[in-house]
Known about the structure:
Blueprint: H1 11-16, E1 20-23, E2 38-41, E3 54-55, E4 71-78, E5 88-95, E6 98-106, E7 111-116, E8 122-127, E9 155-157, E10 165-173, E11 177-185, E12 197-198, E13 202-204, E14 210-212, E15 218-219, E16 225-227, E17 230-234, E18 236-237, E19 247-252, E20 258-263, E21 288-289, E22 295-298, E23 322-327, E24 334-340, H2 344-349, E25 360-361, E26 365-366, E27 372-373, E28 375-379, E29 385-389, E30 405-407, E31 412-413, E32 416-417, E33 424-426, E34 429-432, E35 437-445, E36 448-449, E37 455-461, E38 469-473, E39 476-484, E40 490-495, E41 498-505, E42 526-528, E43 531-535, E44 539-545
Parallel strand pairs: 3-38
Antiparallel strand pairs: 1-2, 4-44, 5-6, 6-7, 7-8, 9-10, 10-11, 11-12, 13-14, 15-18, 16-17, 17-19, 19-20, 21-22, 22-23, 23-24, 25-28, 26-27, 28-29, 29-30, 31-32, 33-34, 34-35, 35-36, 35-37, 38-39, 39-40, 40-41, 42-43, 43-44
Amino acid sequence: MRAACGCVLCSALIAGLTACGHGGSAAPSQPGPPPATSGTDVVTYKNDLARSGQNLTETVLTLANVNASGFGKLRFLATDGRVDAQPLYLAALSLQGAAHNVVFVATENDSVYAFDADSGALLWHVSLLGAGETPSGPHACGQIVPVIGITSTPVIDRAAGSHGTLYVVAMSNSGADHQRLHALDLTTGAELLGGPRDITATYLAPGGGTRTFDPGQYAERAALLLSRGVIYTSWTSHCDISPYTGWVIAYAQTDLAQTAVLNVAPNGTGTGAGTAGPAIWMSGGGPGADAAGNIYLLTANGAFETTLDANGFPSNGDYGNSFLKLSTAGGGLSVADYFTMSNEVSESQADLDLGSGGQMLLPDLTDSTNTIRHLVVGAGKDGNIYVVDRDSMGRFSPGGNNIWQQLTQVLGNGSSGGIWSTPAYFNGTVYYGPSGGNLLAFPLGSARLAASPSSASSVTFPYPGTFPAVSANGSSNGIVWAHQNTNPAVLYAFDAGNLGHELYDSSQAANGRDQFGAGNKFITPTIADGKVFVGTQTGVAVFGLLH
């Protein structure tokens, strides 16, 4: 029996850090190989609510068959714009009278596509632009160019509605900018729930004053989160152009009604590096959630009050360069706990974002005293890996960082290295890909990371580094996949047990067989049912076994 795998149903993923899988089979209506007899759904950024990046149900791709002689580019799925969002995937979706393995692709031109993953056939395509609208412009900023449409990774709930629902945020312009939340039918792309919903918000700042969300001031870079029936959006600025603050805005998945608003820097409206913001962007990474519904994210550089209130929280509620744990109790949003480094002010003034990287929740780990630890890991431009206890995050102390573990500048720093990416986890190891550095493996023991990597790739990855993703069959045949932002771009596959053992890269085959165009930043490969999907500036490259 095939199990539905919408994120709202996947609390088990947090504890197990596994990709959702299910069985099912049917004949395709298009030419090409039949759909897999057992399949994997990738319904959210990096596979699960922990953001682990691992798919543990991959039975096709192995350490033995991923090589240039038997593995390579199968086809290219052309789109009308850049694919900055991670492609999502459903196995054996009933569509147009047959079961299809489907890859869903969103573009900066405000389009969403559904392709047959096995044949490449276009199943449907919709534009989310309203009448007379265009995608928004870059807002005097080079971060998202040449237009801004759909930047963040959508989220899918296979059990929502009659045929399943894809939720996505799109930015457009009709003379004024719009940010809208859409709910799309998985089988047709049709708009559901009376949508789209225009994103608007106000927030009362501590000490007085009202902050109003300006859709032209923000971009939705961070991936959407769907947890316990609520969709969470989070917002970044255009190149730190003030005034901006840090928003998290929540919507009910059943009717797109707004349920909660939180501003994590309601007084961060200044013009300096340490007084504006902070934004929430995480290089496209998504907020995570634990089994209790708490939400975790990293903020970028910006305002933070070193004067604390009686509970140890910043006096005006500004959380620059912080790990945040957000409570969703009672359907609301509030900061339940946090960690901010002791040198936050100097790091913010130097534009050393913590939130240039994304957080990842680790599975339950047992420490040297036989105590179970619930940890979250994150890193940013300063090159430190911070491991924070989710049950007691450490908050702020000017005298030092009161956290579970810190590895200082093991990832370089903002002038040479640092993180503009998100990590991955597999089989007791955390993988990081710093900017300008090697892909690194840090094993865990007694709930602590090793002080230095156990293995590293021989290849280095220029800005922004790389966003590792892992495929495996349980604990066997672990492969770490990595995208290199070069021209031409390169897809790499490494042995998860030894990153020095490269299995494949797309530059190896003769006559440019596997090349797929110029690189695109912040790209996470999606691996499912024997195929690897890689976003590009003009579409999605599809890799798999050649025979």
